[in-house]
Specification:
Layout: E1 18-25, E2 31-38, H1 42-50, H2 57-68, H3 74-87, H4 91-103
Antiparallel strand pairs: 1-2
Helix pairs in contact: 1-3, 2-4
């Protein structure tokens, strides 16, 4: 399984593993499959946004879920909000973030 590829890292909160398969056909009608796997912690998500990368839907949903469950430190929440402010959000990120907050129930 995909989860067996990523052993637990001691002392870090585990983000769930999400895999997406992308199929692409080349000129010779051969199909190649690429798998993108996410296995992140909140600090890794924060680092990704701080460096200007676009966050995946699953990462934003996970972050909002952690905020609602009070599982992350307030300083991490503040750092993420600062990264949003300084690096900006794409339209897709804004929509996902808004829907995640709306569906959080809190």
């Amino acid at each position: 399984t995909v989860a067996s590829l990523f052993p637990e890292r001691p002392g870090k909160q585990r983000f769930y593993v999400a895999a997406q398969l992308y199929r692409k056909q080349d000129r010779n009608s051969r199909t190649s499959v690429t798998m993108v796997v996410l296995s992140l912690t909140v600090p890794e998500i924060l680092s990704k946004k701080r460096s200007g990368e676009e966050l995946q839907d699953e990462e934003l949903k996970y972050f909002i879920d952690c905020v609602c469950k009070n599982e992350i430190d307030r300083s991490q929440i503040g750092a993420m909000l600062m990264a949003f402010c300084l690096r900006g959000l794409t339209t897709k990120e804004t929509v996902t973030l808004t829907k995640s907050m709306m569906n959080s129930g809190t």
